[in-house]
């Protein structure tokens, strides 16, 4: 899908969001419980884990703030599964039993989450698959995940000069996004001259597992001989970096990442990580919040596209390297210069034009 069509779609959905705000106010005044009415609506937000910093620091507060902004009679019931699919099943069932009007679900296990979808829909509770795709969900809000993997792989090809041996660390096998990142990355790497000497699908996206896997490979290949590392997210990139540092490597090869975590941005500034993929979480969280309040208040939904039979709103990811941090992360107020440029990184920030 080209950028022009994406821009048009985002413009359309913004218009819908404004209409939903008016509709929510109108329903509140009307007292019609079939719409907004005076009856409080409950939106259950179910997030998968806390190891990745984005969920507690960004997704949750941004989602809650937007719901509060657009619907006075809506409340958010927040639940985190701590990477436990069974716990998430229980949380979802409890939310349904307690009268949730909408579930916004970022699944621990995409396949297992289809059970949650069926249970919710049998109770006439719509489900928004948030960030990760769930088969059979009513709606899906996320980024172009294959493109994320392509961006990462393209950056690694550029950084290595398209030659040499690399390691490849993918995400959790139970995360449907991980498969899409992996597919996108392989579509680039398999056509390149880079040789993947070892590949790992990392349970739970664990940074510790990433460090252990990378360190184990140093028994087979000298760390200095690696041209680069494909790491599917910033947490794993941190584990990879730690492995190289523990091995005494002073010149770190290019490492990819995703999520624009603060530690990753600082590593990029310092030259210890090559890039990350920034997915503007504010846009994703606010779109999901607008969609959830629309559904809770009976507002008709439009402006979506079809992704495997699910009405979807797909946003564009952004490549972040050292030279565009100011124009992306800082410009969007995702992090401030003060957040990034702590004393440890002051000199690196000055060299990068961030002081």
Any descriptors?
355 residues, 3-stranded parallel sheet
Q: How would you describe the overall organization of this protein?
A:
- Helices cover about 45% and strands about 20% of the residues.
- It is an alpha/beta fold.
- The strands form three sheets. A seven-stranded mixed sheet has the order 2-1-3-4-5-11-10, with helices on both faces. Strands 7-6-8 form a three-stranded parallel sheet, sandwiched between helices.
- It is globular.
- The two termini are about 40 Å apart.
In short:
With 355 residues, this protein is an alpha/beta fold.
**SSE pattern, N- to C-terminal:** HEHEHEHEEHEHEHEHHEHEEEHHH
Number of strands: 12
DSSP helix fraction: 40-55%
Shape: globular
**Biggest sheet strand line-up:** 2-1-3-4-5-11-10
Beta-strand content: 15-25%
Give the topology, please.
Layout: H1 3-30, E1 41-47, H2 54-70, E2 74-80, H3 85-97, E3 102-105, H4 113-122, E4 127-130, E5 139-143, H5 145-160, E6 164-170, H6 176-189, E7 194-201, H7 207-217, E8 226-231, H8 234-246, H9 262-270, E9 276-278, H10 281-296, E10 305-307, E11 310-315, E12 318-320, H11 326-330, H12 337-340, H13 346-351
Parallel strand pairs: 1-2, 1-3, 3-4, 4-5, 5-11, 6-7, 6-8
Antiparallel strand pairs: 9-12, 10-11
Helix pairs in contact: 1-10, 2-10, 3-4, 5-6, 7-8
């Amino acid at each position: 899908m080209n950028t022009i069509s994406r821009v048009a779609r985002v413009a359309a959905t913004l218009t819908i969001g404004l209409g939903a705000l008016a509709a929510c106010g109108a329903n509140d005044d009307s007292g019609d419980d079939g719409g907004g009415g005076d009856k409080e609506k409950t939106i259950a937000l179910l997030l998968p884990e806390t190891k990745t910093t984005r969920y507690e620091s960004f997704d949750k507060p941004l989602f809650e703030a937007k719901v509060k902004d657009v619907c006075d009679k809506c409340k958010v019931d927040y639940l985190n599964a701590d990477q436990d699919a069974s716990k998430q099943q229980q949380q979802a069932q409890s939310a349904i039993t307690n009268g949730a009007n909408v579930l916004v679900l970022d699944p621990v296990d995409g396949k297992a989450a289809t059970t949650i979808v069926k249970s919710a829909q049998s109770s006439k509770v719509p489900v928004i698959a948030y960030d990760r795709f769930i088969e059979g969900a009513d709606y899906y809000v996320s980024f172009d995940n294959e493109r994320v993997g392509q961006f990462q792989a393209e950056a690694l090809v550029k950084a290595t000069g398209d030659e040499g041996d690399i390691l490849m660390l993918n995400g959790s096998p139970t995360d449907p996004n991980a498969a899409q990142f992996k597919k996108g990355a392989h579509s680039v790497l398999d056509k390149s001259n880079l040789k993947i000497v070892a590949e790992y699908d990392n349970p739970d996206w664990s940074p510790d597992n990433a460090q252990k896997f990378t360190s184990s490979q140093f028994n087979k290949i000298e760390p200095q001989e690696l041209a680069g590392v494909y790491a599917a997210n910033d947490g794993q990139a941190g584990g990879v970096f730690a492995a190289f540092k523990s091995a005494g490597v002073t010149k770190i090869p290019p490492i990819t990442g995703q999520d624009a975590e603060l530690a990753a941005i600082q590593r990029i500034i310092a030259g210890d990580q090559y890039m990350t993929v920034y997915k503007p979480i504010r846009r994703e969280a606010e779109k999901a919040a607008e969609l959830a309040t629309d559904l809770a208040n009976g507002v008709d939904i439009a402006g979506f596209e079809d992704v495997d039979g699910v009405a979807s709103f797909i946003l564009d990811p952004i490549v972040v390297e050292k030279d565009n941090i100011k124009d992306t992360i800082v410009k969007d107020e995702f992090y401030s210069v003060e957040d990034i440029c702590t004393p440890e990184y002051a000199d690196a920030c000055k060299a990068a034009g961030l002081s």
